[in-house]
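Translate structure to sequence.
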């Protein structure tokens, strides 16, 4: 089941930042993530793409680049950085979504999610999706003031 949430930030129209979240979105395999993350603090370590149909995306990237995938239900599939160079995934989405909803989402890791959020806000960024939890982890999305929306996650 896909949950729909609308979030607004200062100076940002609600229709522009509606983010569709899936309970399978950015599920990280606990075994793969059991290593110490502190060396990844504030580094990009996940990218999330949108796909209208996950099976053809899996076939395409598997055939062309040799990626393998893990299914997390009907709305999400992940791939490993061991083959792709960075961990990531595909979420099911519509081709007709605004580009802000279907553009790749770059996700950074933080050792201290609250401190990172405070730093973003102090620098003029806007939290567009408040912190939410998914199995064993938490994440929020922010706008940088230059038209980009990124995510930050932590254990």
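Result:
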């Amino acid at each position: 089941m896909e949950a729909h949430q609308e979030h607004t930030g200062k100076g940002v129209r609600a229709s522009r930042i509606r983010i569709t979240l899936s309970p399978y979105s950015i599920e990280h395999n606990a075994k793969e993530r059991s290593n110490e993350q502190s060396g990844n603090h504030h580094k990009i370590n996940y990218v999330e793409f949108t796909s209208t149909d996950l099976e053809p995306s899996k076939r395409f990237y598997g055939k062309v680049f040799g990626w393998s995938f893990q299914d997390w239900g009907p709305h999400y599939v992940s791939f490993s950085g061991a083959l792709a160079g960075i961990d990531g995934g595909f979420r099911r989405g519509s081709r007709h979504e605004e580009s802000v909803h279907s553009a790749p989402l770059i996700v950074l890791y933080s050792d201290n999610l609250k401190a990172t959020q405070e730093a973003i806000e102090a620098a003029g960024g806007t939290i567009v999706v408040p912190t939410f939890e998914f199995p064993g982890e938490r994440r929020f999305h922010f706008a940088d003031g230059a038209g980009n929306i990124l995510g930050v996650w932590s254990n």
